[in-house]
């Protein structure tokens, strides 16, 4: 019986490999005919421009869902808007070990399939994107089960008047935490350097499907060549459909930035937030003061912080806010990014008053074919229920990728997630082998 099952799995992998190599040939020929404007740059071509403030533009990078830190660099595009269709998928076999305090660990294997699609209409100063990336998890040992983790987003950025830029965005996820931890880690792009999302450290097993959404709007006014003001508002919502409470947060912020030199700028801002939790509501406001500094030609550092005050009592004071971001191009083949901060927006844990998070990502191109990525994240969430204590968890991960062709790569990865405080100690170890197919973007509107 076991031999038949192994034989079927082997046969399945052989068919997948043959199918992907056939599709690879098709995708390469198609892209050679289209030849778009290099929308996906190599990691060794990034550079930091010595300008503290620039004319308003949308975020110069669009992170691609369902990929291992791939992104679209708008700076490589031409001024005229063009539309690109981007797609791909990955198939994986994983070994998973779940552990919990005072209970025996559970081992299982999972077959993973992760397609992703994106339509992006963009130029070097504006963009509109729609992305969707479901992730299917099928057990291949023990009782048969199937889970799907859905993630999608829409972003928009466009100059609406001289020196004014409008930015809109919405992001949604739905599925179990178990399937989310097995899927590619979410990430942001800071100054051309991807940094993993530290909220991956927030998880709760056996609570069923959860839904999250985050919506934001921003308006930037370039007052002069060295001064700018930004206005933004955001909303986030979390709900555990099968069990547990829901939470939502809204916020508003205004900030003013001024360059005092080609490499240094200062900013000052104010914020307001409202939290609607199942155990009550919280309101607060605060101020922040920060500095952004270009360190040499290859590094950028931003540091900001300030006090926070409560407009409505929420069991205990909030204290303050802070935000740190560092992007560092170590060499033409290696890069590092770091972020840390405090957020009052809802994450994957209900009834959270605020969360302190930190993340660091390191990537190195070992050769033309081999790349390595190291990621780590930390989260500490203070909850309304004082008796539960603060939730504290972390994750670490390593990924080695081997590019077999222009569109196909073979990768192996290891991740560990662990909750160390605020409840029973539990976590997950995962090892996975992935075959990924990512054809070059197709320009569908010239």
Report on the architecture of this protein.
This protein has a single domain, classed as Beta Barrel (Porin). The chain contains 2 helices and 24 strands. The strands form 3 sheets. The chain has a 20-stranded antiparallel sheet that branches. Strands 1-2 form a two-stranded antiparallel ribbon. It has 446 residues and is mainly beta.
Largest sheet: 20 strands, antiparallel
Order of helices and strands: HEEEEEEEEHEEEEEEEEEEEEEEEE
Total count of domains: 1
Shape summary? globular
Structural class: mainly beta
Average residue pLDDT = 83
Low-pLDDT runs of 5+ residues are: 1-52, 54-58
Rg calc = 22 Å
CATH level 1 class label: Mainly Beta
Q: Give me the CATH architecture, please.
A: Beta Barrel
CATH topology: Porin
Helix content: under 10%
Query: How many β-strands, per DSSP?
Result: 24
Please report which band the strand proportion falls in: under 5%, 5-15%, 15-25%, 25-35%, 35-45% or over 45%: over 45%
Task: Give the structure's gist in a few sentences.
This protein is mainly beta and 446 residues long. The chain has helices spanning 2-34, 177-182; strands spanning 61-63, 71-73, 82-100, 103-122, 127-132, 135-139, 146-161, 164-175, 187-190, 193-196, 210-224, 227-240, 246-261, 264-277, 280-295, 299-312, 320-328, 334-343, 352-365, 370-383, 391-403, 408-421, 426-437, 442-445.
């Amino acid at each position: 019986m076991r031999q038949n099952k192994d034989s079927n799995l082997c046969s399945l992998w052989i068919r997948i490999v043959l199918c992907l190599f056939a599709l690879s040939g098709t995708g390469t020929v198609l892209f050679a005919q289209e030849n778009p404007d290099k929308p996906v740059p190599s990691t060794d071509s990034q550079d930091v421009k010595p300008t503290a403030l620039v004319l308003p533009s949308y975020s110069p990078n669009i992170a691609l869902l369902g990929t291992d830190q791939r992104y679209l660099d708008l700076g490589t595009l031409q001024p005229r808007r063009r539309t690109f269709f981007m797609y791909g998928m990955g198939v994986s076999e994983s070994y998973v070990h779940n552990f919990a305090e005072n209970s025996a660990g559970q081992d299982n294997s999972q077959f993973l399939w992760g397609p992703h699609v994106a339509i992006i209409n963009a130029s070097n100063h504006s963009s509109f994107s729609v992305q969707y990336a479901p992730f299917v998890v099928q057990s291949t040992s023990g009782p048969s089960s199937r889970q799907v983790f859905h993630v999608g987003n829409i972003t928009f950025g466009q100059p609406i008047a001289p020196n004014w830029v409008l930015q809109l965005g919405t992001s949604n996820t739905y599925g179990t935490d178990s399937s989310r931890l097995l899927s590619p880690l979410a990430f942001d792009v800071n100054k051309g350097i991807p940094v993993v999302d530290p909220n991956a450290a927030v998880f709760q097993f056996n609570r069923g499907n959860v839904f999250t959404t985050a919506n934001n709007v921003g308006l930037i006014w370039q007052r002069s060549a060295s001064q700018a003001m930004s206005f933004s508002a955001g909303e986030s919502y979390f709900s555990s459909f099968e069990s547990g409470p829901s939470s939502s947060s809204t916020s508003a912020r205004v900030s003013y930035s001024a360059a005092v030199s080609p490499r240094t700028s200062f900013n000052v801002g104010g914020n307001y937030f409202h939290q609607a939790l199942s155990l009550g509501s919280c309101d607060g406001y605060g101020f922040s003061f920060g500095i952004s500094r270009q360190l040499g030609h290859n590094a950028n550092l931003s540091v900001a912080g300030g006090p926070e005050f409560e407009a409505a009592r929420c069991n205990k004071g909030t204290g303050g806010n802070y935000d740190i971001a560092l992007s560092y191009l170590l060499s033409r083949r290696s890069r590092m990014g770091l972020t840390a901060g405090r957020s009052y927006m809802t994450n994957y844990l209900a009834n959270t008053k605020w969360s302190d998070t930190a993340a660091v990502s390191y990537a190195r191109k070992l050769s033309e074919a081999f790349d390595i990525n190291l990621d780590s994240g930390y989260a500490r969430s203070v909850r309304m229920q004082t008796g539960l204590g603060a939730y504290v968890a972390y994750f670490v991960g390593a990924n080695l990728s081997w590019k077999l062709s222009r569109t196909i790569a073979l990768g192996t990865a290891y991740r560990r997630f662990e909750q160390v405080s605020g409840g029973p100690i539990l976590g997950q170890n995962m090892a996975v082998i992935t075959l990924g197919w990512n054809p070059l973007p197709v320009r569908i509107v010239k």
